[in-house]
Amino acid sequence: MLAWLRTGIAVMAFGFVVARFGLFLRLLHEQAGRQVGHGVSPYVGAALVAMGVIATAGGALQYQRYVGSLPAGDRPPTSSPRFVLGLSWALVMIGVVLALVLLV
Predict the structure, then answer these.
(1) Cα dihedral 78, 84, 86, 87 sign
(2) Which residue in 28, 19, 88, 74 sits closest to 49, CA to CA?
(3) What is the pLDDT of residues 39-82, one digit of tens each?
């Protein structure tokens, strides 16, 4: 689960950086007096954020299925999958909002 969360967060962060780097380049071109278009970086960045959302959601679903398949005796008594799943779904929702913000 940790690997899926880490991968999802990293891909979402990279998508945000790609989208904002395109904005930075556009501002540099405008300051130099050149006319520039919108560019593709917001779309590529939003696509990367969406891929991170998919990775996080897929990891959460896979972890939920795995924990559900364990017999009650094999589950550690101190573990709570609800915390990890709640964190995962919160990151999914944040990623969806971020992707929408990048496209607007």
Answers:
(1) positive
(2) 19
(3) 788 889 899 999 999 999 999 999 889 888 888 888 777 677 88
| CA gyration radius, the chain | 19
d(CA 32, CA 92): 39
The amino acid sitting at 56 is T
Q: What is the pLDDT of residues 13-29, one digit of tens each?
A: 999 998 888 777 777 77
Determine the residue type at 29: H
Instruction: Say what the pTM is.
Output: 0.80
- Taking a C-beta distance cutoff of 8 angstroms, is the pair 67, 75 a contact? yes
